[in-house]
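hi! just following up on the protien thing from before. the input was this:
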Amino acid sequence: MCERESPNVRAVWNGVTTAESDATVVVERQHYFPRASVRDEYLRSSWLISLCWWKGIARHYTFEVEGVRNTNGAWSYPGPWPCRNIRGHVAFWKGVEVART
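and the predicted 3d structure came back as:
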């Protein structure tokens, strides 16, 4: 359910790497990147929050790369349960390419 990955994984939006790590956690086939591996210059907090019935409350982020904005294209769980190992991690969607390098 909540598995650690070891291969290097990269998230790319608009041709730019927004996150890269060899320590992602995979939940439901989604890579969660350690927050320290996400490039801060692209990420901004969003007003949106959402609820997952089994992971808890998610906080969303908007990011912009070279003038192209991805509104609410990333999220994290500040207090996840039962997958506590995704705390402090960020996941991407909405057109962000996430692949092993």
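The mean pLDDT is 93.
The first strand starts at residue 2 and ends at 4.
cheers
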